[in-house]
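Hi there, hope your week has been kind to you so far. Do you reckon you could talk me through the fold, stretch by stretch? I've dropped the whole record in just underneath, so have a look:
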Amino acid sequence: MGEKVLETARYKRIVLKLSGESLAGEQGFGINPEVVEDIAKQIKIIREHGIDVAVVVGGGNLWRGLSGSAKGMDRAQADYMGMMATVMNALALQDALEKIEVSTRVQTAIEMRQVAELYIRRRAIRHMEKGRVVIFGAGTGNPYFSTDTTAALRAAEIEADVILMAKKGTDGIYDSDPNKNPAAQRFDNLKYIDILNRGLAVMDSTATSLCMDNNIHLVVFNIDDHANIVKAALGERIGTVVA
C-alpha cells in the first residue's frame, strides 16, 4: 500500500514548520493538548502515505527571544530561552505522536541527552528511512537565528523536497497585511527573489536566501484547519507556492 500511494504523492520527504502559536490553539499561549493531538493525527496520515516527515517547531507560545530582548534582556540569553521553549513543544508533539503509535525521535541542536538526541544529520535521515518522524528542537543552537532559518537549514541538510509552512490566521502570502488592508491580494505563486525584493513578511531574509540558494520549495498555508497539513503534504493546491 505504501509503495502504491508513494507513486501518487508529490513529495517524498517534507519539513513541516509549525509555529509555537499553532500549538496553543484559541487560548493563544501555552500548549493545548487537544490541538497537539489533532496535529499529530494529521502527521500520522502523512506517514501512512509513505512520506518522510521532519518537523521544526517554534516556541512563541511559551517565550519569544525578541520580546525579552526588547525589554532589556541580553539578546543571546533571551534567544537561548526561546530554544528551550521549542524543545518543550517538541516533547509535547512527540508524546502525542507516540500515543497514536507513530515512532518519533526528538533531535536538539543543544545537547540535553536525558530528554532528546543531539542532532546528527545522518542519524536523522536514517530515522526517516525507518519510518520515524523526526522533530528538530532548539533551533540551530545559535542565538540571532529564527526557527524559520532552522527549517531552511534542516531541509537543505536532509534533502527535503519542500518546506510546508503552517501559518495561523492567514492562508498564504499577500502583497500587504490582510489584517490591516482589506484589499490585500494573495499570491498563488512566487519566486524567492520576489519575496526579498518586495520585503514580504514570510520568513526572515536568512531563511529566504537559504531556500533560494538550495532550490527548496515552500508552501505557505493556513493551519487553522488542521486537515490542510495533509492536503499540502499530498501536493493539493492550497496557499502560496514559492519556488
